[in-house]
Design a protein that fits this description.
6 strands, alpha+beta, 51% helix, two-stranded antiparallel ribbon, 455 residues, globular
């Protein structure tokens, strides 16, 4: 460590070009890519990625990078934009818990696009993903929790994670990777109103982060420079977007000893991760007490700050609102047993029984649970049944977090649930085998009933 966190991180990323790749880390990278495709493919059928693919069809340019939304090849920037947007649309992309950050959508979208454009090897691609996660997740730790007050951290820090992956795939050394981070820090935006408020901009945050990261990586590889003090200086990124100039002691802790891609949360529910502890708690209580929706008089959920600030949402007009409503998601879980894609279908959103049940659910902030955030995502639940019985439960973690991780079988089950309807069984299995078992770079897929926009 030399007192410059940007260069410490750049050197760590450079190290992933050639350092010994432990079998478990290599496997974790493949798991992350499989989960990215699981989140991506449903977003190729609905949402702003589809709209953008039509609007930008004439600007895709010449190249080998695949935009999975329309199946067409073009420039790395074009593919990264569309894939980054699509992979954040249905809210199934991964989480780095300690940074409150979704690394896959911007990082893997950028890395795969550049790898395809450059004809890179699968090993180079996976190493670039690991390096991008290393830098992005650690910057997120240094900025949190104050950064999240006004900024969508996946939109912001994701730009820098994407830049690192792009620069690595261009063969950049530590100095050039550092310039890519610095350049990306000037592109990094995305505020909380477009996360919490109405509209379809939130998925575009990740698409922009991926595209801007590719631009920063390509620029650095070509010789464009940025300030090496961009992250920690008095007028640098941390100072502009968080309290102080960054907690770099936290961000750099364990650098070289552990890598973030091995501490990733895979989503078990298709909604905002701040709702997960409540859903896991309700599921545990149902398993123990065997109650159904008709047995419940009221549910009180005690959570941490963002659970209330972002997810206490009674007005649900569309699937996007529903994915950020603890009341709706609790109702869907109690009535259907799962909060996956079907919970946000037009049929589910129109169900009067779910809407009525929402009024039974309240959410409040608990100071002790808030104090443990972001390292712990917890909830305390109090459910009063119509019989008069009151049951309570404390949920200490979330299924999918590093301390309660998905097995490979559970991850594949999620992947198949989300992709078979888009690809069909054979194509989904083929892609899974390429990612998990082969030395080939993931490439094109054929979507069922795929309609390509006009060239």
């Amino acid at each position: 460590m030399n007192g410059n966190p940007l260069m410490d991180l750049a050197r760590a990323a450079e190290g992933w070009h050639s350092r010994a790749l432990a079998d478990d880390v290599a496997h974790d990278a493949r798991r992350a890519v499989l989960d990215w495709f699981a989140a991506l493919l449903p977003g190729c059928l609905e949402g702003p990625g589809v709209t953008l693919s039509r609007a930008l069809a004439t600007g895709r340019g010449e190249g080998e990078a695949i935009a999975y939304v329309d199946g067409a090849r073009g420039t790395a920037r074009h593919a990264a934009l569309l894939n980054g947007t699509a992979s954040h649309t249905v809210e199934f992309d991964d989480i780095f818990r300690d940074g409150g950050y979704h690394p896959a959508s911007p990082t893997i979208s950028a890395a795969l696009a550049v790898a395809q454009a450059e004809g890179a090897s699968a090993e180079a691609f996976y190493r670039a993903v690991i390096g991008g996660y290393e830098v992005g997740c650690r910057i997120a730790m240094a900025l949190q929790p104050s950064h999240y007050r006004n900024w969508h951290i996946t939109a912001t820090v994701g730009t820098m994670g994407a830049a690192v992956s792009a620069a690595m795939l261009k063969g950049c050394d530590a100095d050039q990777i550092g310039h890519a981070i610095a350049i990306a820090s000037s592109f990094a935006g995305g505020h909380q109103e477009n996360l919490q408020g109405r509209g379809q901009t939130k998925p575009l945050h990740c698409g922009h982060a991926a595209e801007a990261g590719v631009l920063a990586g390509l620029a650095a590889a070509a010789g464009v420079t940025g300030s090496p003090d961009s992250l920690h200086a008095a007028h640098g990124y941390a100072a502009a977007t968080s309290d102080g100039t960054g907690n770099w002691q936290a961000g750099l802790a364990g650098l070289g000893e552990w890598t973030p891609i091995s501490r990733i949360t895979f989503k078990n529910h298709g909604c905002c991760g701040h709702i997960f502890p409540a859903l896991d708690g309700i599921r545990a209580m149902q398993a123990k007490h065997s109650f159904g929706p008709g047995d419940v008089a009221r549910i009180e959920i005690q959570g941490y700050g963002p659970t209330v600030a972002i997810c206490d949402r009674m007005e649900v007009n569309d699937a996007r609102d529903a994915r950020f409503s603890v009341q709706y998601c609790a109702a869907a879980l109690v009535h259907t047993g799962a909060v996956r894609l079907a919970a946000f279908s037009p049929e589910a959103l129109a169900r009067a029984d779910l809407r009525d049940f929402m009024h039974k659910v309240t959410v409040v902030e608990d100071s002790e649970i808030t104090a443990a955030y972001p390292a712990r995502r917890q909830a305390r639940l109090i459910i009063k049944l119509n019989s008069g019985e009151v049951i309570e439960h404390f949920q200490p973690t979330r299924k999918g977090d590093p301390d309660d991780p998905f097995t490979d079988a559970e991850l594949v089950e999620k992947y198949e649930e989300l992709t078979v309807g888009v690809l069909g069984h054979e194509e989904a299995a083929r892609l899974r085998d390429v990612i998990m078992n082969s030395d080939a770079l993931p490439g094109g897929v054929t979507l069922k009933n795929h309609r390509r926009p006009a060239a």
